[in-house]
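Hey, quick one: can you model this chain's 3D structure?
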Amino acid sequence: HEQEMLTGVAVDAVFDSVSVATTFKDRLSKAGVIFCSFSEAVKNHPELKHYCVRGIPDVRILVYNTIPLMAMLRLPTAESRGKANVHAGGIGAGIDLAQGITTTAVHHGHLIETIPGTQLPVGGIKLPHWRDILLIAVKATEALGLRYAGADIAIDRDEGPVVLEVNARPGLDIQLANMAALRSRLKRVEGLTINT
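Sure thing. Here's the predicted structure for all 196 residues.
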């Protein structure tokens, strides 16, 4: 009866670590996705550690129809209390999808060139395991049956890329970080058929 009531109704779904662990862990495992709940300790990758005051950076990948559209490195700051959350004062750095290197960055909606309080440039950061990050984001989105989603991936020192969370309705700050409109990227891949 509940399913009938919801027919034709848009539903906003966020797949957090608890719901993924209890509902989708087997499907993710079969797809080759390593799941890491928030309660598990993720060890900061040495190539990214010095860009963070504390906390673990992550990569948000927007995926549509199995195609990565945009990516953003989210860096925690002292202001964000170690959380890789741009709304809490973290930094969002756009990523060149072909190379896995950061380009432009934003902090509180303003373009920045260096990490606040340091002289470390935000552009030009080469992300380790880049191809694996893209692949795991696509696989996680597919395994959850989502056509469009934002996959948040951390890069563990020992395990490499691990899924933190998959959002069915991710925020759009990624457009500012990339200085690009999502709509134009969606139009470029509209109607493509992907053979995997």
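One thing worth noting: The mean pLDDT is 84.
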